[in-house]
Each structure stands twice: as C-alpha cells, then as structure tokens.
Amino acid sequence: MRRQRRQPRQNPYRAYRGKSRWGRILSWTAGALAVLLLLLAAGAWAMFRQEWAIAGTIRQLDAPRPVYFMEIEGDYHFDAFLQQGGASSDQEVSAFLTEKISKGFYTASTTLSGTGCSVLSAQSGDGSLLWGRNFDWTGSVPIILRHVPEDGYASLSTCDFQNITGSADVLPEGVVNRMLAIAALYVPMDGVNEAGLCVADLEVNEGGMPDPDTEKPDLTVTTAIRLLLNRAATVEEALALLEENRRRFHTANLEIVPGAAPEACQDLPAPTHAFIGGSAGNMRAIIALLLEKNPAVRIVASAVTLESVAELTACGKEFSFTEWEAVSLTAARSRTAGPYHLMTGQNPVHLFTFQR
C-alpha cells in the first residue's frame, strides 16, 4: 500500500501573528488618518466658525432674476477696521477683508471701473416711506443684507456681488463664494437703519474719481455708509460722525455742507452732476443756480407729487434743455380681501433728467 505524503503542518500561531501585524498596521494608519481629519475639521470649524454661520444664512429670493438675502449679527471686525485707521481705497478694504475671511490663506486684488448710480425715495398712499435703488445695469447680482451690530442700529442694505468678485457670472453659491459674500457688510451701496436713517452712494465716475491727498488713511464711501447705518439715528448725527472722521483721518477731499438749497450751495464750486431728491418748493431756484455755475451740468431730480412734476416740467421748458427725459416708476403692495389677494398701487415716483 502506498503511503500518502504528509504535507508539512502550518503553524497556526505564526499565520495568525502575520495577519495580525499587518492588520494592526492598517488599523493604526486608518485610525491616525481619521484622527488627523477630525483635528483638521475641528481646527477649520474653530477658525472659520463665524464665517460658516454667516454663509449659512445666504438664500436666493423668489425673483425673476438672481437676488440674494443674507444676515450678519455682530460687527465682523468693523470696529477693528476703524481702530486700524480705516482704509483710503477699495484695494485696502479688499486686503483687510481677504485677510479676515481667509485667515491669510488667500489674497485677492480689486479693479475699478466707471459707474453711475441713482436711488429713489417716496411716500406711499398710506403714509409709509419707500426707499429703493435701481439694479438695471448689465450683470448685477444684488444682495440684500440684514445686519445687527453688537452695539448700534440694525439695518437693511444692498450690495452688488459683482463689486466683490468682478464678474456678473459669479453667484454667492458654494462654500467659497458664500465666504466672499461676507464682504457685502463693508461695501453697501445704500441702506436704511431701524432709526429711519437712509444713506446712499451716488457715484458718478465718468471722468475718474480724484485721489485724496491725505497723510493718513480714511474711510471709503461704502465703509462710511456702514459707519453711519450702525451709529447714526438722524441726519444731524450722521453729519457729526462724518465731520468727526474727517478731522480724525485728515480727509481734505471731503467737505460736509449742511443747510438747505439753494442758499447752502451759493459758495460751492461748479458741479458736473447734481442730484435733487427734495426741493421744499425751491426747484426752480436750485436748477437756476446749478446752470449759473455750469451751463452743461447734468441734473437728475425726483418728484412724488403732481406739483413737483408740474414744476420740473415747467423748468424743462423754461431752461431749454436739449436732453430731457422723464421716467415714471410705480410699485404695488399686496393686501387681502377675504380669501383673495389684491395688488394695490402705490404713489408713483417720477425721475427727470436734464442737460443742455
């Protein structure tokens, strides 16, 4: 009988030890990576927790075009911005915000381009006040910001996200772009606070904006708007704040002129553009003074009453403007009527543009 050859017996302990050693190595590696990822996630959350919270409030409103809403509670370094001396240009504001938002991991640059602005203020039929800005230029991405500072007045303001990114194709969606939208706090185009103060940036940049000749940094237009919305309740308080900062930052290019037109405008230099939001019955005298100082001045005036419309129409004929345009804007507000909802028209606003 032929005996079968016996196979060498494998040591089960040795096989177990071999598998166990590699298993432990893999387990330790996976565990170390998991701990590292957890530490990185915890560190990122601790470093960017304020930014994550703000970015989480951004939502798109139900509108025919992309319009976004966001909320910021707290100052988000605005006090530190003022304490460092503010900023003398949009580039300096961009550098400050980039460092705060990205914690130094990213740098960005800002480019400037010519712009022109207009806003409207009107009283509706029920006595409430309306305040608005047009976003009718090409490629704007409006953001409506609700801000509640730690020590100041809550406010609503508007910002064009294109002013932050430099592109109308970029929307405040996704992690990175939501982070960038935090800069809207520092670049409001206009706003109204809970005390009723309204502030707007009406910039005309057709010929380029002059550079301020100052020895110390100052506030840009948009950061000045944020300061006023946070800390001023009346026009008088806003003027006092502007004067305080003008002296503090040695802004020789800023001149505050309180008073009523046309008397307060007598000693001012000849304007290239003029915005008239309310004339208190002095529309003709104001326009006459503007034309006396500069016959080619471009004038934009708003009217909410028929008397003001008639006065502006008469001025258009009397002063023989070669360019004369009138635009009527009407808003409607919903109201309930039993189980139905109706739209009630509000008082229209008329915008006149004059130039010889």
Topology order in helix (H) and strand (E) letters: HEEHHEEEEHHEEHHEHEHEEEE
The chain-level mean pLDDT equals: 79
Q: Work out the count of structural domains.
A: 2
Q: How far is the N terminus from the C terminus?
A: 126 Å
The residue ranges in which pLDDT falls below 50 over 5 or more consecutive positions are: 15-19, 206-217
Describe the protein.
With 356 residues, the chain is an alpha+beta fold. The chain has two domains: 51-256, no CATH class; 259-356, Vaccinia Virus protein VP39 (Rossmann fold). Helix content is 35%, strand content 21%. A six-stranded mixed beta sheet has the order 1-2-5-6-7-8. It has a four-stranded mixed beta sheet with strand order 9-10-14-11, covered by helices on one side. The longest helix has 44 residues, at 12-55. The protein is elongated.
Question: What's the quick description here?
Answer:
By secondary structure, this protein is of the alpha+beta class. It has helices at 12-55, 78-83, 90-102, 162-165, 175-180, 221-231, 235-249, 283-293, 306-318, and strands at 59-60, 68-73, 119-123, 129-133, 142-148, 155-160, 190-193, 198-200, 273-276, 298-303, 323-329, 332-337, 340-345, 349-355.
